[in-house]
Design brief:
This is Lipoprotein. This protein is of the alpha/beta class. The chain has two domains: 112 residues, no CATH class; 104 residues, Nucleotidyltransferase, domain 5. The protein contains five helices and twelve strands. The longest helix is centred in the middle third of the chain and has 16 residues.
Length: 226
């Protein structure tokens, strides 16, 4: 299909229809170059009823999708549009099983574009504890729920014993290392976000969770926005 170089794509983000998307910033991305792409944009627009405008005119279903979302938007505004795009990709007449979906970010370590994949993420409009309570399957992993109010305000909930504690991202990483070493079982993290959280905070948290890099710890593809 088509290949967009990073510099050319930067120009598109800044000048598409004379509108600006302020991309969320992350400190580092492992994904920096994607080929065969098409793009969608979620603009922050105070003239719109919900301060948001979606431009998806140039999306090609068989390509990798780069979704450019203004960091000033909040999750309550953004998630319905993301779900719409996911459904459009999944139900398109022409499919490419290898095509993926990515959020576009500004990688500050390189002062260039970076990407966060969300191809298999399933969004739920409820708290993770409610979701787990409704499932009858016995979990194969030790489940820990993380509810984020912000990067500095994380509620940790162990589903097994409903133990709660408060921490931040740095404290949680150290805590998780200790508990993963003491458990003889794989750990699954289920992550929840307040619907009033900014897209910037959401991406920042996601990028940091992806860097946990602990052998027996996985992050659930189910995400909870409430």
């Amino acid at each position: 299909m088509k290949k967009i170089t990073l510099l050319f794509f930067l120009a598109i983000v800044c000048s598409c229809n004379k509108k600006i998307v302020e991309l969320p910033e992350i400190s580092h991305s492992d994904i920096t170059d994607i080929q065969d792409v098409s793009a969608a944009y979620l603009f922050y627009d105070e003239t719109q009823p919900d301060s948001i405008e979606l431009n998806r005119k140039n999306l090609i279903s068989t390509t990798n999708w780069l979704v450019n979302i203004d960091k000033r938007l909040i999750l309550r505004q953004v998630i319905p549009h993301i779900q719409f795009l996911q459904d459009k990709k999944a139900n398109g007449a022409h499919k490419n099983e290898h095509a993926k979906n990515y959020f576009t970010c500004h990688d500050t370590s390189r002062n260039n574009l970076g990407f966060v994949e969300f191809t298999e993420i399933i969004y739920h409009s409820e708290e993770p504890i409610n979701f787990i309570s409704k499932t009858s399957d016995i979990p194969t992993k030790y489940q820990i729920i993380l509810n984020f109010s912000s990067k500095e305000d994380i509620e940790i909930l162990h589903f097994v014993n409903l133990e709660k504690r408060k921490t931040n991202l740095v404290g949680f990483k150290n805590y998780l290392k200790n508990i993963s070493n003491s458990l003889n079982k794989d750990i699954e993290l289920l992550v929840g976000f307040k619907e009033t959280s900014s897209f910037q905070d959401y991406i920042s948290i996601k990028s940091k969770l992806l860097k946990l890099d602990l052998e027996n710890v996985t992050i659930s593809k189910n995400e909870f926005i409430y």
